[in-house]
């Protein structure tokens, strides 16, 4: 996995031992997402997915020490097997966008662009994500979280690798 910060965006590239069709499914179906998305050790609670441009993915997770987290994706563009564009946000139980408990400087929305490319039965994903409609303070805070995000996505994608081996 390669991870870098480029133009105030986190850019992650990783190769998975799975065909692109399966990789698209694990990003677009709640039955799959619940098995790998999110911080390691968190348990899934609520999950509702409306996978279409203008749709959303609203979910909750709970940490081992009991912290309950709500979040939401808002989908903008979907090209089957090729690309998914969404905003990632923290939310409340009703799906309203809120700031996370850990910072009042974390951007309200992170625009993510996921692309998938298959070669010899393996899929390379590239995930680019960065704040939109953010203040300079919010963009700076986001950039300062690089190491934390690198570790978090590394763990999340390790969980995806483990899940892909089972499906």
TrEMBL record:
Coiled-coil boundaries: none
Pfam hit, one: AHSA1
SUPFAM superfamilies: Bet v1-like (SSF55961)
Positions of the Activator of Hsp90 ATPase homologue 1/2-like C-terminal domain: 17-164
Record-stated family: Belongs to the AHA1 family.
The protein's name: SRPBCC domain-containing protein
Organism: Paenibacillus sepulcri
Organism taxonomic ancestry: Bacteria, Bacillati, Bacillota, Bacilli, Bacillales
């Amino acid at each position: 996995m390669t991870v870098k910060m480029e133009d105030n965006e986190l850019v992650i590239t990783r190769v998975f031992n799975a065909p692109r069709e399966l990789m698209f499914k694990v990003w677009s179906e709640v039955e799959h997402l619940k098995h790998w998305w999110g911080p390691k050790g968190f348990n899934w609670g609520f999950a509702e997915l409306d996978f279409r441009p203008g749709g959303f993915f609203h979910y909750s997770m709970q940490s081992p020490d009991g912290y309950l987290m709500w979040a939401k994706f808002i989908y903008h563009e979907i090209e089957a097997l090729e690309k998914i564009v969404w905003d990632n946000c923290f939310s409340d139980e009703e799906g309203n966008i809120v700031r996370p408990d850990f910072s009042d400087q974390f951007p309200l929305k992170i625009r993510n662009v996921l692309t998938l490319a298959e070669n010899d039965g393996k899929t390379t994903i590239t995930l680019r994500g960065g704040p939109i409609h953010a203040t300079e303070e919010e963009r700076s805070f986001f950039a300062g979280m690089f190491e934390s995000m690198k570790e978090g996505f590394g763990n999340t994608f390790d969980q995806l690798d483990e899940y892909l081996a089972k499906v």
